[in-house]
Amino acid sequence: MPSDTLEAVSEIRELSYAEAVREALAQAMEADERVFLFGEDVGVYGGAFGVSGDLVHRFGKERVIDTPISELGIAGAAVGAAITGMRPVLEIQFSDFVTLAMEQLVNQAAKIRFMFGGKASVPMVVRLPGGSGTGAAAQHSQSLEAWFAHVPGLKVLQPSTPHDAKGMLLAAIDDPNPVLIFEHKLLYKTKGHVPAEAYRVPIGKAAIRREGTDLTIVGSSIMALKAEAAAERLASEGISAEVIDLRSIRPIDFTTIAESVRKTHRLLVVYEGVKTMGIGAEISAMIAESEVFDFLDAPIIRLGGADAPIPYNPVLEKAAVPQEDDIVTAATNLVRRGEA
Amino acid sequence: MSADQKPNQRPELAALDDATVAQALTRMHLIRKFEEAAEASYMRGLIHGTMHLSIGQEASAVGTTLPLEAHDYILSTHRGHGHCIARGAEPRLMFAEFFGKETGYCKGRGGSMHIADVEGGNLGANGIVGGGLPIAVGVGMSIKAQKNGRVCMVFFGDGASNEGAFHEALNMASIWKLPVVFVCENNKYGMSMDIGRAMAVPNVADRASAYGMPGHCLDGNDLAGVAAVAKVAIARARSGEGPSLIECKTYRWRGHSKSDRNLYRSKEEIEEWRNQDPIRRLEDELKAHDRFDAAALMKLEEDAQRDIDAAVEFARACPDPDPKDLTRDVYAL
Ligand SMILES: Cc1ncc(C[n+]2csc(CCOP(=O)(O)OP(=O)(O)O)c2C)c(N)n1
Questions:
Q1: Closest residue in A to B127 (Cα–Cα)
Q2: Pocket test for ligand 1, best of B75, B78, B129 (most atoms within 8 A of CB)
Q3: Which of A229, B1, B40, B268 is surrounded by the fewest CB atoms within 10 Å?
């Protein structure tokens, strides 16, 4: 566990990822009346993935606001509310629908502070359930985080554990910038230790989930968990993998990655988004441009999603994104190659 | 109102006292002179990029904002210099922004299409057609949640009313009865596309009925008429009854932007609208009712010209931003 968990004072209890997000929302709303929730079916329905749950009953319809199906409009409304003193937390029902809201997030939210010469800021949070694995096929399963990480002015987070889901959301609500949080749909039911108090996990800091010496595996969201499971199996085959959970894509914690690669001399980057032009390319290039490049004993391997939309068929769907087996195979090849 | 003025003034004009009319005229002159000076500066190579002039549309910008209070908000468009001035922004800081200087409203980062005066309640012009409309909804939500009694007025063109953002924003503002006034400046064209070809109904204001709000279709070159309707819409917004849609039918005398060769409209059409110059119309009406004499009117215009000339000189002399500050305001700390 990272040291920022305030373990000492917290009650030990397990919450699901969805419950952890809900608890963060409730605590933020209790602490600050400028915070309000906003999105399609977040009220009585409780959110398409049940994240907002009973919050409308606890905080009322004025603060947990059901919106029409108008993604562009609601993203823009969050911008307007944010620049005039509120702290909106918006849910885009499936992250895929953010395509309809691109204009407001990319052209408005990300740029207002800069275009206004620093005279306004846009403290808004957008929660986006993303990722594949639910059989919902091409228009409900994408991993679009790299798109937004490409935009200066935005921050992009991908928490993988219930602990981080809560702590990073609270940090995001405090942040004076527009922050997008991609929550993986398959993670909502996963459970983990979540302290009861309102703690923060700092934005822009990766977590070392497992220490190792033979290679570094960098992933985030569900891929960080798959990498951890793969590392367990690799250990039984005598390969010691260090696993880094990025947690934050922008800003990215290159220091932690670089230090790890300096130690292990090998790097495998795993991400669910389409492989081409993605997060793996960026991390690889950062290494190539830095003095850490000289420490590499083997070429970097990128393991990303297929260059295809997410298919409906379950066999194809699994094949479209990196799986634990793929990580084990890639890691093994990487270590062997480095030894050859 | 002066004691010796002639009777039979229409009520819209009679409702504006002399001080208010003088302020409105001054602002209309400032807009006209600002735009003319912008054009001249462009020719002299002082301006980088493009610009969208609103010469001919002054009554709409000034009339709609005239009944606003100091703490109210506006959101503007790519053709936004007029709205900015109408809300009382300082021309010298606007020119400084336009010339890209560190002293400009946005420290030279925004330029003509993005001038904002956040302290003055101007939440920014917008380079994206229709971009301000959803933002106004959020500003309205914020006003309602904070119960601060303000109103948000958002400007857009006839072209913007064909964007999804327009429809989403009007619907949301209406279902939540937000204190927003939507002002469409219908100058008949979205770049070269005339509204007859771009819209299935004759007036933008007709669309208000789909969103359950009043739609007002106005002669946008009539300052007093525009101000009277804006006053009603602003009062409605402030009292919690919800948004209105105002359509000001007006005309831009110049091309869409600097690259426009004006091939899609005739000289006769432009001439016809120049004859409806909103500034001369108001002046003529004031003279006809003996509210101001020619000398007083001339003085307002000359004062405006002097202010604009001084603003250009101020802006020219200001420093450029330092490249080392390039990424300074990307993120708030
Ligand atoms: C979303 C978007 N599409 C296209 C443009 C290019 N563009 C800039 S202004 C304009 C015409 C806008 O017409 P209208 O809304 O009527 O405003 P006007 O220029 O007439 O004031 C166009 C097409 C843009 N800036 N943004």
A1: A107
A2: B129
A3: B268
The reply to whether residue B141 touches residue A68, judged by beta carbons under 8 angstroms, is no
Among A23, A71, A183, A317, which one carries the catalytic annotation? A71
Cβ pair B303, B91 in contact under 8 A: no
- Residue in this structure with the two tokens 């799986």, named with its chain if needed: A323
Instruction: Describe chain B by its helix, strand, coil percentages, rounded to 5.
Output: 50, 10, 40
Task: Give the count of Cβ contacts less than 8 A between chain A and B.
Answer: 148
Does this model's pTM top 0.90?
yes
In the residue annotation, A71 being an active-site residue is answered as yes
Mean pLDDT score, B102-109: 96
Strands (E), B158-226: 180-186, 189-190, 193-194, 215-219
| Chain A residues with beta carbon closer than 8 angstroms to that of B118 | 83, 116, 119-120
Rounded Cα–Cα distance for residues A244 and A212 (Å)? 10
A22 in Cβ contact with A51 (< 8 Å): yes
Question: B322 pLDDT exceeds 90?
Answer: yes
pLDDT digits (tens, 9 = 90+) for A276-285: 999 999 999 9
Chain-centroid distance of CA B261 in Å reads 24
Give distance in angstroms: CA of B303 to centre of ligand 1.
33
pLDDT of B3 over the 60 cut: no
- Structure confidence by residue, pLDDT tens digits, A221-247: 999 999 999 999 999 999 999 999 999
CA distances from residue B31 to A115, A133, B18 in whole angstroms, order as listed: 23, 58, 20
For position A293, what pLDDT does the model report?
Answer: 98
